[in-house]
Amino acid sequence: MTTHPADDPALTIGERDAELNERLSQELTAFNTAATGADDYGTLSVKVTDQAGELVGGLAAWTWGGLCGIEMLWVRDDSRKDGWGSRILQAAETEAGRRGCDRVAVSSFTFQAPGFYQRHGYTETGRTLGIPGGHADVHLFKSLVGTVAVDQ
Which residues contact residue 50 at a Cβ distance below 8 angstroms, ignoring those fewer than 6 apart? Predict the structure, then answer.
């Protein structure tokens, strides 16, 4: 049996810890800035609401060092054929370009929307296997150089 002195670090496991997430984000941002020299981290969102104020769809992303990383894009079922996904994505690309980004990265499960991103000029760069149901996480990339998003 191994014993540890009372002043040894303690390992705890539990549900997501908002305070821990914030601290990890701060520490990794500082580390990344020191390693790359890029210290322009920001977040962006695009939100669409209907006349009743209900959410139609939206996008959450981050920008850093000329790269925009899309974290989430969602459109509710009854609005998916109305072009909102495309308009939301184009608005985010335009805003990313305004912020100095010249490229965008996103991932999408095979049962979600990799084809949607490919139709918008994204190229698959790899896959993470092992998603439940035999699916994969498709990683995609798009250069904004020479597109409306950067030129506006």
Answer: 56
